[in-house]
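2 proteins. here.
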Amino acid sequence: MRSGVERATSDRLAAWFADQGATLVEADILLPAETLLDLYGEDIRARAYMTVDPVQGEMMLRPDFTVPVVQQHMAGGADPATYAYSGPVFRKQTRAGDRPSEFHQAGIEVFRRDQREESDARVFALINQVLRENGLTLRPVTGDIGILMAAVRGLATSERRKQALLRHIWRPQRFRALLDRFSGRAPVPQARKHLLDRLAKGSPADLIAQAGTFTGLRSEAEIAARVQALTEDAQTPALAAPEAALLYDLLSLQAPSRAALQHLRGIAPMLPAITPAVDRFAARLDALAAQGIDTETLPFEASHGRTSLEYYDGFVFSFHADDPALPPVASGGRYDALTAVLGQGKSIPAVGGVIRAGLMTRLMGEKP
């Protein structure tokens, strides 16, 4: 019975988005797994329900709506386009009774080549509006993955180290460990140091021969390439102290949005790679203000969104209840790069957001 109320709430939210100009769409529940698994964060990948079809191969139950909606749009959607949807998503839970494994989401996705910041603001404002119209005043948090990615791409270090940091942006502990090592704040792990010492005394072929029977999935050429990469990385100088300090400062930035913008403007001359992303942040704040959002008090965290979906690459946001144990009631963000991955040579800027209908219903105090 509870799911009936949840489903009705989800459908009502999608209808509300449609009233604001979105087109209602359906999305497949059973999806091909091969491409999609790499697009989700570690958390969702570990919690996806998998099965094997004798014809189609490995499949997964839909863990979210954005990826299948993007697939549909890139296969022949209008340009620009705004979509709304409602339905169940499926994720394994780590503890019995922790959270439901099947729950309903309603959401909106905007595909538009121009007015990117205005589209960001519109999605955020629409979700904020519908939550308030249903009696929920929740705590918003915003961020911008694009600023952090720009900072990493602008570092004066090897391309290999920059790619390692970018790959682990969504894994804060691993990212911090790499940054500590690349900046010289942490020593080289003992196991790697031991391996490098051995490599300095012989070739990869010698070490493979000493190891005895050749086992494993990697070929000798792949092992040699990995050895070369480790050796080159060990010879790469540490990040300059001022540059590393600026990146640590950026990771810890939490402030009201206008104050955060002022801080970012202050460090941009010393970290010039972030300037275009900061300019977009400023334009977004103006667009949010035009939507009636108080950007003087709107919380901003530079690291926000780093433990969520890995396809976000710009503006990110979420709305939270007072209970910190609850997941976000609503969340979303910009995912321009995802459309290129799924677009078979085409791409279009896109942003979207979802609402957990069941959690919303619970907070509204509705009875089944």
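next one coming up
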Amino acid sequence: MSAATSPYAAVLRTETRLFRREPGVLFWGLAFPSILLVILGSIPSFRNPEAGLGGLRTIDVYVPVLVLVSVITTSLQMLPPVLTGYRERGILRRMSTTPVRPAALLSAQMILAGGAALASVVLCLAIGRLGFGVKLPSQPLGYALTLVLTATAALSLGALITAVARTAKIASAIGTVAYFPALFTAGVWVPVQAMPNVMARIVTLTPFGAAAEALGEAARGDWPAWSHLGVLAAWAVVLSAAAMRWFRWE
């Protein structure tokens, strides 16, 4: 059977059509980080070098932060309620009796969430570069590796929320509760580089705090610190294992 006619490809096409019909998901997952970047970049003081940031401008620091917002939003706001809703309505149970296994639906949702996050990341980088003169990452391999590890950890956290939530409403509530601490550790309100030393050390032990530091280092041209990559990898492994351990199809 060709890939174009395989059950997995059919599920992915169907889920893609459904995804495009969700304006709220498209806005928060794709447009919101870029709109926030435009708003922040429009503040004159954010375009001036800051001694406390090592000569960088505030907008330079916020581009990696909003890249993280893209990944966090798609993973915690889009993925859990959709998958939990499918399980709640018995769709996954019914799929288990057909040639299309429930894993196909899970894979399709992971691909869509990852694709939405990637599109939003590219949009943020393009707006930062073209609109505000923010340099593109000077260490692209380190930047890409950090993004892969971050996306793995974030999507695994979304899958874990799906695993423990009994209904789509509960999944949305848990995702929202997790969303704001994730944004804080990513540096939305205060960039990690500007946090007090003790707070910064604690925050960089979280997946998104470590990701913010690693992305900032790669953006400046340095290879991300192995300590930050190690924290990200550890969280990705732990969250993935927990999601697989507790995930239920029905």
